[in-house]
Amino acid sequence: MSTGVIIALIVIVAAVLVVAAVFAQRARGPQHGSLKRRFGPEYDRAVARHDGDTRAAERELGERVQRHGSLQIRSLETAERERFEARWTAAQERFVDSPSEAVGEADRLLAELAGVRGFPGGDQYEEQFAALSVHHAHHVDGYRRVHRATHTRADGAHEGGANTEELRESMVAARALFEELVRPGRHESAHPRTPATHTGETAPAARAPHTWSLGKRRPKES
């Protein structure tokens, strides 16, 4: 076989491989873009968890969507919403004196709230987290952080567990998911409570997310 023929065959094979790669990329392109948009930072975490294997990460995330994408989310009654808000307020106030206990309560509260809304129960953390990531991908990391901090301390994984600043950051991050879960759905209207005359508290819907500070004691909010 002449050198020219060999070169021609190499060129043909290379062209076929390029065309195949282009078609493969186009075939997976829409799903790739859709998953990346849907999961946001969770997409990047999944890729990192799979050591950069994008296909494996997308397979995992696609399976999450198949399992939980059509989940029926239950609305909260006004009284339920108020009880959860009061418990969160109590937990954030407790942080000043007992950061670890406050973070543990935040972990339990998110698990219970998610279960009430229709996500898998808190006793199935991995499955509950997977379902939450499908519907609240941009805020779910806070739940991961308080859960990890709580169970690292409980399991004695390392002496002292997370420091106070790490606990503070995890609880601030977790509040974003709490507010997503506790707020009225699109078809609901919020019913602010009458401000309490002795505290001057206002309806929770009026607060902007991520403005809460754990640096000092604050008047009770709801």
TrEMBL record:
Region (Disordered): 183-222
The protein's name in its UniProt record: Secreted protein
Species this chain originates from: Streptomyces parvulus
